[in-house]
Design brief:
Elements lengths: L2 E13 L10 E18 L2 E17 L3 E11 L7 H11 L4 H25 L18
Antiparallel strand pairs: 1-4, 2-3, 3-4
C-alpha cells in the first residue's frame, strides 16, 4: 500500500442555522491537498523516504445549516520510489500532481475520513454525507 502513515491534526464542525430546514439538503465534500513535502518514516529495516501530504477535507451543507473540516497528514510512498522527486518538483513548480496520484491520495483520505464525518453528523443531528439504506414495508393487498 502506498500510504504508510495517517494522522489527523484538526477536526472542526459547527452548526450555522438555528431553524429547521424543510426540503432537500445537499452535502458537498471538498478534499484538498494543501501542501506536499519530503518526509520519512522509520521502519525496522531503516528509514524510508516518502511524501508528506497535508490535506483539508471540508464538508458543507446547502442550505447552510452547518460546515466543518478535517485536517491531517499522510505519508505517501509512490509505487516507483524514484518518482518522489518528480512528484515534489511538479508540486513546487505548479501546485499540481498527476491525476492517478491525486486519485490514490484522495481515495485513501476519503476512506479514512468518512467514518469520522458520519459520527460527527450523528452527534450533531445533521444529515449524513452518504445515503443510509432504509427498509420499507410494502402493504400486501
Amino acid at each position: 500500500m502506498p500510504v504508510l502513515g495517517f494522522n489527523i491534526t484538526k477536526i472542526e464542525m459547527g452548526k450555522e442555522g438555528v431553524g429547521t430546514v424543510s426540503g432537500q439538503v445537499e452535502v458537498r465534500l471538498s478534499p484538498r491537498v494543501t501542501e506536499m513535502r519530503l518526509g520519512e518514516i522509520r521502519t525496522p529495516t531503516g528509514k524510508m523516504n516518502g511524501i508528506e501530504v497535508l490535506f483539508r477535507y471540508e464538508i458543507e451543507y446547502n442550505p447552510r445549516i452547518a460546515a466543518g473540516a478535517i485536517e491531517g497528514v499522510i505519508l505517501y510512498v509512490p509505487p516507483q520510489k524514484y518518482k518522489i522527486d518528480e512528484i515534489l518538483n511538479l508540486w513546487e513548480d505548479e501546485k499540481k500532481m498527476e491525476s492517478l496520484t491525486f486519485a490514490e491520495i484522495v481515495n485513501f483520505i476519503t476512506k479514512e475520513v468518512s467514518p469520522l464525518l458520519m459520527i460527527m453528523a450523528k452527534e450533531m443531528r445533521l444529515p449524513y454525507h452518504v445515503p443510509i439504506p432504509r427498509v420499507e414495508v410494502k402493504s400486501q393487498s
